[in-house]
Amino acid sequence: MEPDEIAELRTVYVFTPPDGQSWGLTYEGLEAKLRERNPEEFVRVNDGSGGPVRGSSMHFGITLDDEQLEAMALLSPEGVSVLDCTAHSAARFALWLRNTVLPGGTVVMFNTEWGLEADLPSTPVPDATRPRIAAAFVAHLEETGDLD
C-alpha cells in the first residue's frame, strides 16, 4: 500500500502519558475543554458498575475540521482513545489533546489497536506539525505489518 492509502485506514489510536507518569487527567477537566469547543458535544461518564469497560470511563464525541469522532477516556490506566480514526484525524486529535487539554510541555505517547496487537511499544507523539505527526502515525501503521 502507498502511504496515502495507509493514511486513510481507520483504527483506534490510544494516547497515554509515559510509563510511570500522569497527566492529572480528570473527566471534569476534559468535559470542560470539550464544552468550551461545543456546548452540545456528547459526553457520558460511566461509573464502571456495568458494561464491557472495567472501572469508570468517559465516552465523548468531538468534531474536528467538520469530522465527528468518537473517543473514550480512562483514569486508570490513564489515557484517551479515539475510535475508528484515520492518521490525519488522529493527528488533529493529538494536537488538540496536547495543546488544549493537557498541561503545557506534556509528553503524549501513542499506539494503535493494531500496534498493541503486534506488541509494538508506545512511542511519543512528535512535537511537530500535524502533517509530520500524521506521517509518524502512517509509519507506525506500516510497522504493524499486514497492510497488503
Please explain how this structure is put together.
The protein has 148 residues and is an alpha+beta fold. A seven-stranded antiparallel sheet has the order 2-3-4-5-1-6-7. A hairpin with a 2-residue loop joins strand 4 and strand 5. The longest helix has 15 residues. The mean pLDDT is 92.
Strand order of the largest sheet: 2-3-4-5-1-6-7
Q: What is the H/E string?
A: HEHEEEEHEHEH
Main sheet summary: 7 strands, antiparallel
Give the count of helical stretches. 5
Helix coverage percent of residues? 25-40%
> What is the first-to-last residue Cα distance?
6 Å
Q: Which structural class best describes the helix and strand composition? A: alpha+beta
- Radius of gyration over alpha carbons? 15 Å
| Fraction in beta strands | 25-35%
Unreliable runs, pLDDT <50, ≥5 residues?
none
The average pLDDT is 92
- The outline comes out as globular
What's the number of extended β-strand segments?
7
Give short descriptive properties of this protein.
single chain, 148 residues, globular, 5 helices, alpha+beta, 7 strands
Secondary-structure blueprint:
Blueprint (H helix, E strand, L loop, with lengths): L2 H5 L3 E6 L10 H11 L5 E4 L10 E8 L2 E9 L2 E8 L1 H15 L7 E4 H5 L5 E2 L5 H15 L4
Antiparallel strand pairs: 1-5, 1-6, 2-3, 3-4, 4-5, 6-7
Gist of the model:
By secondary structure, the chain is an alpha+beta fold.
